Amino acid sequence: MKDARRISSREADWDALQGFIDDEHVRAAHRRLLELGARPPDPRSMADRLDQMSNCYERLQANGFIDDGRLTRGARHLLEAYLNPVQGFRLELAISDRRYESRIWVAANHVGFIEERTRIQLLLRRIHPGVLPTVIVDMLGLGPRRQIDTDATLDVPTQYITDLIARPFRDRPGQFAEHVESTFPTVAADLRKHRWTCWMLSRLDITPDDFVGRGSLAALDTPSALLGVELRGKNSRLVPLNSQRLWMLLADGLGVAS
Protein backbone atom coordinates (compact mmCIF):
# COMPACT_ATOMS: atom_id res chain seq x y z
CA MET A 1 0.00 0.00 0.00
CA LYS A 2 1.32 3.41 -0.98
CA ASP A 3 0.22 6.65 0.69
CA ALA A 4 -3.45 6.07 -0.13
CA ARG A 5 -6.03 8.70 0.79
CA ARG A 6 -9.18 6.73 -0.02
CA ILE A 7 -9.73 2.99 -0.21
CA SER A 8 -12.75 0.72 -0.34
CA SER A 9 -12.71 -2.01 2.29
CA ARG A 10 -14.76 -4.97 3.37
CA GLU A 11 -16.23 -4.44 6.81
CA ALA A 12 -14.52 -7.59 8.05
CA ASP A 13 -11.13 -6.24 6.94
CA TRP A 14 -11.67 -2.95 8.76
CA ASP A 15 -12.77 -4.81 11.89
CA ALA A 16 -9.64 -6.95 11.64
CA LEU A 17 -7.43 -3.90 11.21
CA GLN A 18 -8.92 -2.24 14.29
CA GLY A 19 -8.35 -5.48 16.17
CA PHE A 20 -4.73 -5.52 15.03
CA ILE A 21 -4.22 -1.93 16.20
CA ASP A 22 -5.80 -2.78 19.55
CA ASP A 23 -3.47 -5.77 19.81
CA GLU A 24 -0.51 -3.48 19.11
CA HIS A 25 -1.56 -1.37 22.07
CA VAL A 26 -1.95 -4.48 24.23
CA ARG A 27 1.50 -5.74 23.24
CA ALA A 28 3.01 -2.34 24.04
CA ALA A 29 1.32 -2.38 27.45
CA HIS A 30 2.65 -5.89 28.10
CA ARG A 31 6.17 -4.73 27.26
CA ARG A 32 5.88 -1.80 29.67
CA LEU A 33 4.60 -4.08 32.43
CA LEU A 34 7.46 -6.53 31.89
CA GLU A 35 9.94 -3.66 32.06
CA LEU A 36 8.44 -2.79 35.46
CA GLY A 37 8.94 -6.37 36.65
CA ALA A 38 5.43 -7.73 36.13
CA ARG A 39 4.83 -11.45 35.69
CA PRO A 40 4.83 -12.54 32.01
CA PRO A 41 1.47 -13.63 30.52
CA ASP A 42 0.62 -17.31 30.21
CA PRO A 43 2.22 -18.51 26.92
CA ARG A 44 -0.78 -20.76 26.23
CA SER A 45 -3.28 -17.88 26.35
CA MET A 46 -1.03 -15.81 24.10
CA ALA A 47 -0.81 -18.69 21.62
CA ASP A 48 -4.60 -19.04 21.55
CA ARG A 49 -4.96 -15.34 20.83
CA LEU A 50 -2.43 -15.49 18.00
CA ASP A 51 -4.22 -18.47 16.46
CA GLN A 52 -7.52 -16.57 16.47
CA MET A 53 -5.96 -13.58 14.74
CA SER A 54 -3.76 -15.39 12.23
CA ASN A 55 -6.34 -15.45 9.42
CA CYS A 56 -7.11 -11.76 9.91
CA TYR A 57 -3.42 -10.87 9.86
CA GLU A 58 -2.89 -12.79 6.63
CA ARG A 59 -5.68 -10.84 4.94
CA LEU A 60 -4.35 -7.52 6.22
CA GLN A 61 -0.89 -8.38 4.97
CA ALA A 62 -2.23 -9.33 1.54
CA ASN A 63 -4.01 -5.95 1.34
CA GLY A 64 -0.87 -4.01 2.28
CA PHE A 65 -1.94 -2.91 5.75
CA ILE A 66 0.69 -4.81 7.71
CA ASP A 67 4.11 -6.26 7.02
CA ASP A 68 6.31 -8.28 9.36
CA GLY A 69 3.79 -7.84 12.17
CA ARG A 70 3.63 -4.04 11.92
CA LEU A 71 1.47 -1.44 10.25
CA THR A 72 2.99 -0.43 6.92
CA ARG A 73 4.01 3.15 6.13
CA GLY A 74 1.02 3.51 3.82
CA ALA A 75 -1.39 2.26 6.48
CA ARG A 76 0.00 4.68 9.06
CA HIS A 77 -0.36 7.53 6.57
CA LEU A 78 -4.00 6.63 5.89
CA LEU A 79 -4.77 6.08 9.58
CA GLU A 80 -2.83 9.03 11.02
CA ALA A 81 -5.87 10.68 12.61
CA TYR A 82 -7.34 7.34 13.77
CA LEU A 83 -4.09 6.46 15.54
CA ASN A 84 -3.62 9.88 17.19
CA PRO A 85 -7.03 11.57 17.53
CA VAL A 86 -7.87 14.67 19.53
CA GLN A 87 -11.50 14.91 18.44
CA GLY A 88 -14.12 12.65 16.98
CA PHE A 89 -17.49 12.94 15.27
CA ARG A 90 -20.35 10.54 14.60
CA LEU A 91 -22.61 11.13 11.61
CA GLU A 92 -25.98 9.35 11.59
CA LEU A 93 -27.87 9.69 8.33
CA ALA A 94 -31.28 8.37 7.31
CA ILE A 95 -32.50 8.64 3.71
CA SER A 96 -36.11 7.54 3.32
CA ASP A 97 -35.93 3.85 4.27
CA ARG A 98 -32.14 3.51 4.62
CA ARG A 99 -29.78 4.33 7.46
CA TYR A 100 -26.02 4.94 7.47
CA GLU A 101 -23.50 5.75 10.15
CA SER A 102 -19.99 7.12 9.72
CA ARG A 103 -17.26 7.96 12.20
CA ILE A 104 -14.65 10.67 11.91
CA TRP A 105 -11.37 11.19 13.75
CA VAL A 106 -9.29 14.39 13.70
CA ALA A 107 -5.62 14.67 14.69
CA ALA A 108 -3.89 17.66 16.31
CA ASN A 109 -2.57 18.77 12.90
CA HIS A 110 -6.22 18.81 11.67
CA VAL A 111 -5.71 15.81 9.37
CA GLY A 112 -8.90 13.75 9.39
CA PHE A 113 -9.88 10.11 8.89
CA ILE A 114 -13.38 8.97 7.95
CA GLU A 115 -14.96 5.55 8.17
CA GLU A 116 -17.82 6.13 5.71
CA ARG A 117 -20.50 3.49 5.33
CA THR A 118 -22.59 3.70 2.17
CA ARG A 119 -25.28 1.39 0.84
CA ILE A 120 -22.78 -0.72 -1.11
CA GLN A 121 -19.38 -0.31 0.53
CA LEU A 122 -17.22 0.85 3.40
CA LEU A 123 -14.81 3.67 2.54
CA LEU A 124 -11.73 4.59 4.56
CA ARG A 125 -10.57 8.13 3.78
CA ARG A 126 -7.75 10.43 4.85
CA ILE A 127 -8.86 14.08 4.79
CA HIS A 128 -6.67 17.15 4.27
CA PRO A 129 -6.73 19.81 7.02
CA GLY A 130 -9.44 22.42 6.51
CA VAL A 131 -11.67 20.52 4.09
CA LEU A 132 -13.72 18.45 6.55
CA PRO A 133 -16.85 20.67 6.30
CA THR A 134 -16.79 20.34 2.51
CA VAL A 135 -16.47 16.57 2.76
CA ILE A 136 -19.39 16.39 5.20
CA VAL A 137 -21.56 18.52 2.90
CA ASP A 138 -20.79 16.08 0.08
CA MET A 139 -21.66 13.08 2.27
CA LEU A 140 -24.98 14.71 3.16
CA GLY A 141 -25.77 15.52 -0.46
CA LEU A 142 -26.45 19.16 0.37
CA GLY A 143 -26.82 21.68 -2.44
CA PRO A 144 -27.94 25.30 -2.86
CA ARG A 145 -31.25 25.79 -1.05
CA ARG A 146 -33.47 28.78 -0.45
CA GLN A 147 -35.19 29.25 2.88
CA ILE A 148 -38.94 28.64 2.76
CA ASP A 149 -41.07 31.75 3.00
CA THR A 150 -42.13 31.52 6.63
CA ASP A 151 -40.83 32.60 10.01
CA ALA A 152 -42.67 29.77 11.74
CA THR A 153 -40.89 27.35 14.04
CA LEU A 154 -42.20 24.19 15.63
CA ASP A 155 -41.29 22.40 18.85
CA VAL A 156 -41.28 18.62 18.60
CA PRO A 157 -40.25 15.81 20.95
CA THR A 158 -36.56 15.09 20.38
CA GLN A 159 -37.44 11.41 20.26
CA TYR A 160 -39.27 12.06 16.96
CA ILE A 161 -35.94 13.08 15.44
CA THR A 162 -33.85 10.31 16.96
CA ASP A 163 -36.44 7.68 16.04
CA LEU A 164 -36.65 8.98 12.47
CA ILE A 165 -32.88 8.55 12.12
CA ALA A 166 -32.62 5.24 13.99
CA ARG A 167 -35.64 3.47 12.44
CA PRO A 168 -36.56 5.24 9.18
CA PHE A 169 -38.10 2.11 7.67
CA ARG A 170 -40.94 1.85 10.20
CA ASP A 171 -43.97 4.12 10.58
CA ARG A 172 -41.93 7.01 12.00
CA PRO A 173 -42.20 9.28 8.90
CA GLY A 174 -46.01 9.07 8.94
CA GLN A 175 -46.22 9.90 12.65
CA PHE A 176 -43.82 12.79 12.21
CA ALA A 177 -45.83 14.08 9.23
CA GLU A 178 -48.97 14.33 11.36
CA HIS A 179 -47.07 16.38 13.93
CA VAL A 180 -45.60 18.93 11.50
CA GLU A 181 -48.50 19.20 9.04
CA SER A 182 -50.16 22.30 10.51
CA THR A 183 -46.91 24.31 10.48
CA PHE A 184 -44.99 22.81 7.54
CA PRO A 185 -47.59 21.14 5.26
CA THR A 186 -45.20 20.66 2.32
CA VAL A 187 -42.70 18.93 4.61
CA ALA A 188 -45.45 16.62 5.83
CA ALA A 189 -46.28 15.74 2.22
CA ASP A 190 -42.61 15.01 1.49
CA LEU A 191 -42.37 12.74 4.53
CA ARG A 192 -45.39 10.73 3.39
CA LYS A 193 -43.90 10.38 -0.09
CA HIS A 194 -40.60 9.13 1.41
CA ARG A 195 -38.72 12.09 -0.03
CA TRP A 196 -36.64 13.16 2.94
CA THR A 197 -33.22 13.00 4.59
CA CYS A 198 -32.61 13.40 8.31
CA TRP A 199 -29.20 13.49 9.93
CA MET A 200 -27.38 14.20 13.16
CA LEU A 201 -23.71 15.10 13.54
CA SER A 202 -22.40 14.61 17.08
CA ARG A 203 -19.13 16.17 18.20
CA LEU A 204 -16.98 14.22 20.63
CA ASP A 205 -13.85 15.17 22.53
CA ILE A 206 -11.41 12.34 23.09
CA THR A 207 -10.04 11.88 26.60
CA PRO A 208 -7.47 9.29 27.70
CA ASP A 209 -10.33 7.02 28.75
CA ASP A 210 -13.27 7.64 26.45
CA PHE A 211 -15.17 9.84 23.99
CA VAL A 212 -17.04 12.72 25.65
CA GLY A 213 -20.06 14.24 23.93
CA ARG A 214 -19.85 17.97 23.15
CA GLY A 215 -23.12 18.60 21.35
CA SER A 216 -24.91 17.74 18.13
CA LEU A 217 -26.17 19.40 14.97
CA ALA A 218 -29.18 17.97 13.14
CA ALA A 219 -31.40 18.77 10.16
CA LEU A 220 -34.42 17.49 8.24
CA ASP A 221 -34.02 17.99 4.48
CA THR A 222 -36.86 17.54 1.98
CA PRO A 223 -37.42 18.85 -1.57
CA SER A 224 -39.69 21.59 -0.24
CA ALA A 225 -37.75 22.76 2.82
CA LEU A 226 -34.54 22.56 4.81
CA LEU A 227 -35.25 22.57 8.54
CA GLY A 228 -32.57 22.86 11.18
CA VAL A 229 -33.14 20.95 14.41
CA GLU A 230 -32.23 22.85 17.57
CA LEU A 231 -31.72 20.03 20.06
CA ARG A 232 -32.95 21.07 23.51
CA GLY A 233 -33.11 18.01 25.70
CA LYS A 234 -36.50 16.30 25.60
CA ASN A 235 -37.87 18.78 23.07
CA SER A 236 -36.31 20.21 19.93
CA ARG A 237 -37.22 23.10 17.64
CA LEU A 238 -37.57 22.91 13.86
CA VAL A 239 -36.27 26.12 12.26
CA PRO A 240 -36.28 26.93 8.52
CA LEU A 241 -32.75 27.37 7.12
CA ASN A 242 -31.06 28.10 3.83
CA SER A 243 -27.94 26.28 2.66
CA GLN A 244 -25.62 29.18 3.51
CA ARG A 245 -26.77 29.26 7.11
CA LEU A 246 -26.44 25.50 7.42
CA TRP A 247 -22.93 25.68 5.96
CA MET A 248 -21.96 28.22 8.64
CA LEU A 249 -23.38 25.99 11.37
CA LEU A 250 -21.47 22.99 10.01
CA ALA A 251 -18.20 24.90 9.74
CA ASP A 252 -18.59 26.13 13.31
CA GLY A 253 -19.60 22.72 14.64
CA LEU A 254 -16.64 21.03 12.96
CA GLY A 255 -14.11 23.48 14.40
CA VAL A 256 -11.11 21.53 15.69
CA ALA A 257 -9.63 22.24 19.07
CA SER A 258 -6.07 23.51 19.02
Largest sheet: 10 strands, antiparallel
> In which range does the helix fraction lie?
25-40%
Number of helices: 9
Mean pLDDT: 79
Structure commentary:
Helices cover 39% and strands 31% of the residues. It is elongated, with a radius of gyration of 22 Å. By secondary structure, the protein is an alpha+beta fold. The strands form 2 sheets. A 10-stranded antiparallel sheet has the order 1-7-6-5-4-9-10-11-12-8, with helices on both faces. A two-stranded antiparallel ribbon has the order 2-3. The protein has 2 domains: 10-78, no CATH class; 84-258, no CATH class. The relative contact order is 0.13.
Key features of this structure:
9 helices, single chain, 39% helix, 2 domains, ten-stranded antiparallel β-sheet, alpha+beta, elongated, 258 residues
The gist of it:
The protein is α+β, with helices and mostly antiparallel strands and 258 residues long. It is built from 9 helices and 12 strands.
What's the arrangement of secondary structure elements?
Elements: E1 6-9, H1 11-35, H2 43-62, E2 66-67, E3 70-71, H3 73-78, H4 80-83, E4 85-95, E5 98-107, E6 112-117, E7 122-127, H5 132-140, E8 154-157, H6 158-166, H7 172-180, H8 185-192, E9 197-206, E10 211-222, E11 225-232, E12 235-240, H9 243-253
Antiparallel strand pairs: 1-7, 2-3, 4-5, 4-9, 5-6, 6-7, 8-12, 9-10, 10-11, 11-12
Helix pairs in contact: 1-2, 7-8
